[in-house]
Amino acid sequence: MSQVFLPVQILYHRGVVHISGYLKESNQLLILGLEQISKYKLTNDPFDNSSYLQHLETELSRRFGITQNINNEVYDIELEFTERTGTFVHKQFWDETQRFERLENGNFLMHLNCGINRELIGWIFQWMSNVKVIKPEILKELVVEKHREIIQIYEDDIELVSNNSFRPA
């Protein structure tokens, strides 16, 4: 099925070149890694992308990274990092809204104000047992649910299939 894609901006994110734009018929934002595009046809049909660019910037400001959020909510997120990991994490840039505080026990509390998406949950998993979701409850539940799903793959020796369980419904 052919669709008209209105390109807005090229994004470089975590070592991958992406193209962002909108599906003309549904006005849906789409961000694709260039390697995901298998077939395309270029046209010379001009369009004014200024309103699309503003919408893209607004939408990206609500996300952790570039992955689509699970819903339209922006959450106050708190993550507690161990002292050693927090010493590293708090010196890096991860999100425009990040803020850190040092806790009495030496650990670090990271505050974020963004949506929840696959990229955030994967990022949390990268820190393994050196991070704990403090809030919101929905993020705690998603991390635990994904952890259980991963364990089940090993316990039942389940064949892997491509799956994005955090894609919005």
In short:
With 169 residues, this protein is of the alpha+beta class. Helices cover 28% and strands 27% of the residues.
Q: What class would the helix/strand composition place it in?
A: alpha+beta
Mean pLDDT: 93
Strand and helix order: EEEHEHEEHEH
End-to-end C-alpha gap: 21 Å
Write the CATH architecture name of the largest domain.
Answer: 2-Layer Sandwich
Largest sheet: 4 strands, antiparallel
CATH class descriptor of the largest domain: Alpha Beta
Strand order of the largest sheet: 5-6-4-7
Number of helices in the DSSP assignment: 4
What Rg do the Cα atoms give? Answer: 19 Å
Q: Could you estimate the helical fraction of the residues in percent?
A: 25-40%
Q: Residue ranges: pLDDT <50 for 5 or more in a row?
A: none
* Number of distinct beta strands: 7
Overall tally of domains: 2
Q: Please report which band the strand proportion falls in: under 5%, 5-15%, 15-25%, 25-35%, 35-45% or over 45%.
A: 25-35%
Inertia-based shape: globular
Instruction: Write down the CATH topology of the largest domain.
Output: Alpha-Beta Plaits
InterPro entries: WCX_dom
Protein name: WYL domain-containing protein
Pfam family, one: WCX
Features:
four-stranded antiparallel sheet; WYL domain-containing protein; WCX_dom; 169 residues; alpha+beta; 2 domains; Alpha-Beta Plaits
Q: What does this protein structure show overall?
A:
InterPro entries: WCX_dom. Residues 74-150 form the WCX domain. This is WYL domain-containing protein. With 169 residues, this protein is α+β, with helices and mostly antiparallel strands. It has 2 domains: 5-61, no CATH class; 75-155, Alpha-Beta Plaits (2-Layer Sandwich), CATH 3.30.70. It has 4 helices and 7 strands. The protein has helices at residues 50-61, 83-89, 118-126, 137-155, and strands spanning 5-13, 16-23, 28-33, 75-81, 99-102, 108-114, 131-135. The strands form 2 sheets. Strands 5-6-4-7 form a 4-stranded antiparallel beta sheet. A 3-stranded antiparallel beta sheet has the order 1-2-3, with helices on one face. A hairpin with a 2-residue loop joins strand 1 and strand 2 (16-23). The longest helix is centred in the C-terminal third of the chain and has 19 residues, at 137-155. The chain is globular. It starts with a strand and ends in a 14-residue tail after the last helix. The mean pLDDT is 93.
